[in-house]
Design goal:
single chain, 228 residues, mainly beta, 10% helix, Glu_synth_lsu_3
Amino acid sequence: MRVFDLVKTPLRELNRALHAIAPGRNDTNFEVINPRGSHAVAVGIDQPVTVDVRGSVGYYCAGMNDGGTITVHGSAGPGVAQNMMSGTVIIEGDASQYAGATGRGGLLVIKGNAASRCGISMKGIDIVVHGSIGHMSAFMGQSGHLVVLGDAGDALGDSLYEAKLFVRGTVKSLGADCIEKEMRPEHLQKLAELLEKADVQGIRPEEFKRYGSARKLYNFNIDNADAY
């Protein structure tokens, strides 16, 4: 295991080392200590490496991750796992706003709460939040899944496309063109898979409600003008 102490080593050296790993190499385990809220920790990973960050981080941690497994043993600032392509990002604490924004794949697990705009413009990422989420989450979500074990704030799923939203708690309000939908067997099966991947125990898929797009805003229709 390679250990980087960010008190002694510049952040740039950590990210350079992560980017320099050639396919098939065995030295793929990294530990980061004393992150002290540093920004852009472990960004742009494109190999199946494992990174454990021992503390909280600032904005854009694990951005553009493509195949790595990154665990933050603390909380994360804005934009964690933004534009993730594949792999897994786990936040043991809370996440600030727009976690998982524009993510195209992979799994983001937030063990605490997530702030506003969680999953904004998600494009295939799966996000599981053990706590609650803030307002405007999944805004313009195109595909993927957002699973919330707690509550959701105002305007959930505003202008939603085809992302699927599952909330166990209460939803303060739904955004434009987002409605509650029937929970069919295939949704229960997928939800069970995501809960297992996110290490959620003792909670059944049947405890959730599903929300999705009413599909009235895809193209302009004068009859729906008041919803725009």
